[in-house]
Amino acid sequence: MKENIVIYWDTSAIISTLFKDTNTGAALKYANTPGLHLVSSLGVAETYAVINRMQREDHIPKHLFIEVITMFEEGPWRGLNIVPSNKNIKELAKKWPLRGADLWHLSTAKTLHEDLPELRILTFDHKLQEASVGEGLWKFRF
């Protein structure tokens, strides 16, 4: 694995580091990989929404809720306040049948990729993964 790796994390990948699921092993592997780990403000909002919803619906007890919030806040991620280019949103919406948030993640990564050609998306969403492969933004092995 390259030392100058740049990983754009979508919410599915972040959640897999915080809660055990079938992708947790792969997510933790990449979370522990040296490099630049990026998360957009959308990824932050979606992650907090999931964590808080799980606590409200009693899927996680209060003491674990605090631990999960701490794990997220102390994770390898660097937060970004970035808006994808309208051009990328428009072009990618024509090419890929994605939900709005996934289109936003793909467009954001594509926008960042212009200045960071080593950037790759880490996602466990199959449709977003397919689009990422098609856009040359996916080169992970699990």
Gist?
The protein has 7 helices and 4 strands. It is α/β, with parallel strands linked by helices and 142 residues long.
Number of strands: 4
Measured by DSSP, the beta-strand proportion falls in 5-15%
Q: Tell me the series of helices and strands, N- to C-terminal.
A: EHHEHHEHHEH
Structural class: alpha/beta
What is Rg? 15 Å
Global mean pLDDT: 94
CATH topology: Rossmann fold
Total domain count: 1
Q: Distance between the terminal alpha carbons, to the nearest Å? A: 12 Å
Count, helices: 7
Do you know the CATH architecture? 3-Layer(aba) Sandwich
Describe this structure as you would to a colleague.
The chain is an alpha/beta fold and 142 residues long. The mean pLDDT is 94. It has seven helices and four strands, in the order βααβααβααβα. It has a four-stranded parallel beta sheet, with helices on both faces. Helix content is 54%, strand content 12%. The longest helix has 16 residues, at 41-56. The protein has one domain: 5'-nuclease (Rossmann fold, 3-Layer(aba) Sandwich), CATH 3.40.50.1010.
